[in-house]
Amino acid sequence: MAEDLAITTDDLTKEYGDTTAVSDLDLAIPEGHVYGFLGPNGAGKTTTIRMLTALTEPTSGIGHVAGQPITNRQAIIPHIGYLPESPPIYDELTAREQLEYHGGLRDMDPAEIEDRIEELLNRFDLTSDADDRISTYSKGMKQKTGLIQALMHEPDVVILDEPTSGLDPRAARTVRDTVTELAAGDRTVFLSTHILPVVEKVATEVGILYDGELVAEGSPEELKDRMEAGDESTLEDIFLEVTTDDAYEADESPNDTGVGQSV
Ligand code: ATP
Predict the structure, then answer these.
(1) Among 43, 61, 97, 139, which one has the highest count of C-beta atoms within 10 angstroms of its own C-beta?
(2) Which residue CA neighbors atom 14 of ligand 1 most closely?
(3) Model's pTM, two decimal places?
(4) What's the CATH code of the domain at 229?
(5) Cα of 211 to ligand 1 centre, how many Å?
(6) In angstroms, what is the span from residue 201 Cα to ligand 1's centroid?
């Protein structure tokens, strides 16, 4: 039986004036996968995420997240948990108040809200700070609050933009373990980060965006196999190889899947 797809896009394109931020992007990410979404600064990652979360309308092309069209924000919101670069949290609230408010917005019942908050505060080691105002939090504590908020309604698809930003090594490990657990539970994680060792550890599939185009895609093992050094190569080697103008011009006729044209 074919795997169910959690995220699909077909020729998804976003133009800002003369700038094509994302160009004809085709994604087909099955449920239960961790998709590592990589690319240099300005490659179009945030723009892609903003389209997948219905925050930005595509110029052309279509996409679905958890079976819902990405042009219908109301329909996709219940299915996604999104951690943007700056978590949407209110400084004047405590973390507990913020999370209770968010649970209410997601139509969770009050008992479930309290249970999930306790569980996740505990997981991210934030319990003893939960009743302090967010304005007194460190960057890492704010990031943890944002992460808990993205996860608390148990969404089908979790979209994380630099989730380990500002986190200490223990908290970063907790994030990695959580991502792996989510995928084991058939949730899908779309993970955008510049921290390649994190992707190497958790991603089942990797897509590398360069200048708005998907220039390589495959499992970490598949991508390594296409490199001269094979298993010895790292995701960093692959990233550096495919994100240069030279590599890009070497093959201007990508195959249908956009898989590793230049590696
Ligand atoms: P980074 O790793 O630095 O966060 P990114 O891969 O997320 O980069 P985007 O923020 O998606 O890249 O930007 C892709 C391109 O689109 C860039 O050329 C950027 O200047 C342009 N862009 C993004 N948002 C806008 C906007 N609101 N108006 C005009 N141009 C934009």
Answers:
(1) 43
(2) 44
(3) 0.91
(4) 3.40.50.300
(5) 10
(6) 27
